[in-house]
């Protein structure tokens, strides 16, 4: 009962902080935002909606389409009171599914276009994007994003090495390569989940013992689920659950059964945070705006979890395979070869440790993205060219098995 109360308190606090933060940035005047958005149009129009960084590699595609929607959302001057505007998440559109052109038309004539609402999401990214657009354009935001991306890599490198997890560092490198990392800092759409998941990994690498000692770990995953829901566009949310779970497994010295219990517990807390924060937007948004946000939200949830795409039935297997199709190229062959050699070598060398290494726990986590694709078949099938990044969890979990084998050998030697 005490734990339930803490969960409810954290959810309530998260909802209030989320509303406060998004409402505050909606108080910013839009003049300077619109000015920098106009300067950003040159890059967007030159590159187009979905340019490839590597010709022929779908996974290297940028999502300027969604980034433009995010910018349009940020610069729209709503006629509603700021708290209603924050909850309704409105923007202008020309009705032709051409976000770059819609943004251009709106900036040239603020009265043009129709007002559309995107209220089913929190759009928490606006807490960062609006202040940034007030002082710089899209090109400079990309440069800042790249700097943050590289800083994260340095901190992760130090964290893994301080823990003497050099095999874990190799596993992370394999997972990072599977994500077509060059596209992440150039697309705001792809950045949110990367930062949330990476920051949680850093928290575990630098503070695992304190979190376990104070029994805070489940609440770390609860808050992670909440933040994921707050800033995400259904890109690759499993990344923020699966990647930290793998680190949690490798840092723990407990038995496989104890690890399994914590794996299940922390996953449940993440789901509660994710679903609770999302539902909280619909409840609080409906109360603050006097508009029923549930109708649109539930309709979209039903559509995204269905087994239909453009009125045609699809098998959930095809949703999984389509995400895997991203690797039907040279990169995929190289990743597969590295993975087989990397895992195979350690399985052969430490075959006596396999039984007690808890390797199956890593395989279990590796299956997480597949389960997600099953649940969100429609969305994962249509948007496979960015939802595939959830598979970084699969690469990370499987690549971490050698570290688990070696750590188990050391523990047995110390016993």
Index terms:
3% strand; 415 residues; two-stranded antiparallel ribbon; 4 strands; disordered C terminus; mainly alpha
Task: Summarize the structure in short.
The chain has 415 residues and is an all-alpha fold. It is built from 21 helices and four strands. A hairpin with a 2-residue loop joins strand 3 (308-309) and strand 4 (312-313).
Care to describe what's here?
This protein has 415 residues and is mainly α. It has 21 helices and 4 strands. Strands 1-2 form a two-stranded antiparallel ribbon. A two-stranded antiparallel sheet has the order 3-4. A hairpin with a 2-residue loop joins strand 3 (308-309) and strand 4 (312-313). Helix 2 packs antiparallel against helix 3 and helix 11 packs antiparallel against helix 16. The radius of gyration is 22 Å and the shape is globular. Mean pLDDT is 92; it is low at 411-415.
The major pleated sheet works out as: 2 strands, antiparallel
**Ends apart, CA distance between termini:** 38 Å
Mean pLDDT: 92
User: What structural class do the secondary elements suggest?
Assistant: mainly alpha
The number of helical segments is 21
Global Rg: 22 Å
Low-confidence stretches: 411-415
Strand arrangement across the biggest beta sheet: 1-2
Portion in beta strands: under 5%
Q: Note the run of SSEs as H and E.
A: HHHHEHEHHHHHHHHEEHHHHHHHH
- Helix content bin: over 70%
Q: What does the overall shape look like?
A: globular
Number of beta-strand segments: 4
């Amino acid at each position: 009962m005490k734990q339930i109360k803490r969960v409810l308190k954290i959810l309530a606090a998260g909802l209030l902080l989320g509303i406060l933060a998004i409402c505050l940035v909606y108080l910013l005047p839009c003049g300077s935002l619109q000015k920098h958005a106009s300067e950003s149009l040159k890059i967007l129009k030159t590159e187009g909606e979905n340019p490839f960084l590597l010709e022929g590699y779908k996974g290297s595609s940028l999502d300027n389409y969604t980034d433009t929607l995010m910018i349009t959302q940020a610069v729209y001057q709503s006629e509603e009171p700021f708290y209603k505007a924050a909850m309704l998440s409105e923007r202008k559109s020309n009705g032709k599914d051409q976000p770059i052109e819609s943004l251009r038309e709106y900036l040239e004539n603020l009265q043009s276009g129709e007002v559309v609402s995107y209220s089913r999401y929190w759009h928490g990214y606006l807490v960062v994007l609006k202040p940034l657009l007030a002082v710089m354009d899209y090109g400079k935001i990309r440069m800042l994003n790249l700097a943050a991306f590289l800083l994260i890599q340095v901190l992760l490198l130090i964290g893994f090495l301080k823990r003497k997890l050099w095999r874990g560092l190799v596993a992370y490198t394999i997972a990072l390569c599977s994500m077509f990392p060059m596209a992440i800092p150039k697309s705001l759409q792809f950045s949110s989940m990367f930062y949330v998941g990476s920051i949680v990994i850093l928290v575990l690498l630098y503070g695992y013992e304190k979190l376990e000692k104070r029994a805070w770990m489940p609440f770390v995953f609860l808050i992670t689920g909440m933040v994921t829901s707050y800033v995400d566009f259904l890109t690759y949310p499993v990344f923020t659950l699966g990647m930290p779970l793998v680190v949690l497994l490798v840092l723990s010295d407990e038995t496989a059964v104890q690890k399994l219990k914590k794996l299940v517990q922390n996953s449940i807390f993440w789901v509660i945070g994710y679903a609770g924060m999302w539902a909280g937007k619909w409840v609080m948004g409906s109360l603050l705006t006097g508009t029923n946000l549930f109708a649109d939200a539930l309709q979209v949830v039903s559509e995204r979890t269905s087994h239909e795409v453009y009125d045609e039935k699809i098998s959930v297997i095809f949703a999984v395979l389509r995400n895997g199709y991203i690797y039907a190229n040279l990169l995929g062959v190289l990743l597969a070869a590295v993975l087989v050699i990397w895992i195979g070598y350690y399985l052969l060398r430490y075959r006596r440790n396999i039984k007690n290494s808890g390797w199956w726990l890593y395989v279990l986590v590796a299956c997480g993205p597949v389960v997600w694709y099953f649940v969100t078949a429609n969305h994962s099938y249509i948007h496979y060219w960015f939802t595939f990044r959830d598979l970084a969890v699969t690469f990370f979990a499987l690549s971490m098995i050698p570290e688990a084998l070696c750590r188990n050998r050391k523990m047995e030697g110390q016993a």
